[in-house]
Write a structure and sequence with these properties.
single chain, 96 residues, alpha+beta, 3-stranded antiparallel sheet, 3 strands, extended
């Protein structure tokens, strides 16, 4: 018999975390640590230049099992993206 998982509950207030790069990763006391960062653009009105930098958007901390589950989910999503890109473009649009 397969292990039963506890019920999944969606929480509408859970944040959506966007990131452009993984700033760092490591392991401490058996937990996986991943720092994620997003690219920021800061305009300078005096020089008309834009400063580009990366700012931390989140810190992931998880067990090795959860990290493996995240890898599986990311690989699945990337595979879905590749399949979507391989399909021919529809030349005629239509309403459902």
């Amino acid at each position: 018999m397969a292990d039963s998982l506890p019920p999944y509950r969606n929480v509408d207030s859970a944040p959506v975390i966007y990131f452009d790069v993984v700033g760092g990763f490591g392991v401490m006391a058996g937990a996986v640590h991943i720092e994620i960062a997003g690219r920021t653009l800061t305009p300078n009105a005096h020089t008309n230049e834009v400063a580009v930098e990366f700012a931390t958007t989140g810190r992931l901390r998880c067990s090795p099992a959860a990290a493996a589950n995240l890898i599986e989910a990311l690989n699945g999503a990337l595979n879905m993206l590749q399949v979507g890109q391989q399909q021919p473009a529809v030349s005629i649009g239509r309403l459902n």
